Amino acid sequence: MEQTHDEHELHDMEMRNIIEEARVVLPGVQALFGFQTIAVFNDRFEDLAYYAKLCHALGMIMVIISVAMVMTPAIYYRTCRGHATAAMVKSSSRMIRGALAPLAAGLALDMFTVIHVVATGMSARMVFSVGAALGTLALLSGLWFFVPRNARRMAKKQQPD
Predict the structure, then answer these.
(1) 74-110 b/e with 16+ CB inside 10 Å = b?
(2) Among 8, 24, 29, 91, fewest CB within 10 Å belongs to which?
(3) pLDDT score at 1
(4) Are 38 and 30 in contact (CB under 8 A)?
């Protein structure tokens, strides 16, 4: 089935909105990646335990995955010469939302590393580090995934049948 002119315009408008959302998120993610990169050149980084360095590296990988997922819709749209389809809008929207999962994981891994450094000398250093990482992951997951899902569910319940 061919798209009507109105459907095409609607998909283009939705796609432009998705790309605008990506433009809002991307600078923050890029800044985070910059700070992560700079950290390895800090003298104290060399003193970190192997597992803390590994957490930092995994955090950077997660942020790179997030950057790639945030940037992909714009590239996809441009490659199709600005002609959006319903499938493109759906996959791009999922890509932007999906980018939050590796971002949350990357932030949680970095939180582990930061608390590990800050808690040097504490007997419960590992407990605090793991707790902070899990708390960060829970907070971000709750705000970025569960709150919107619950709001969507509540909105569906309020719609008349």
Answers:
(1) bebbeeeeeebeeebbeebbebbeebbbbbbbbbbbb
(2) 24
(3) 45
(4) no
> pLDDT tens digits, residue range 29-70?
888 888 888 888 888 888 888 999 999 999 999 999 999 999
Cα separation, 51 vs 113, in Å, equals 9
3 has pLDDT over 60 = no
Tokens read off for 80: 């199709």
**Residue whose C-alpha is closest to residue 104's, from 54, 149, 147, 138:** 138
Interacting residues of 55 by C-beta distance below 8 A, sequence separation 6+: 109, 110, 112, 113, 116, 133
Task: Spell out the residues 6+ positions from residue 71 whose beta carbon is closer than 8 angstroms to its own.
Answer: 22, 26
> Secondary structure of 10-63 in the HEC alphabet?
HHHHHHHHHHHHHHHHHHHHHHHHHHHHHHCCCHHHHHCCHHHHHHHHHHHHHH
User: Are 11 and 76 contacting, i.e. CB atoms less than 8 angstroms apart?
Assistant: no
How far apart, in whole angstroms, are the C-alpha atoms of residue 58 and residue 134?
Answer: 15
**Rounded distance between C-alpha atoms, residue 121 and residue 41, angstroms:** 23
Tokens of 84: 């959006």
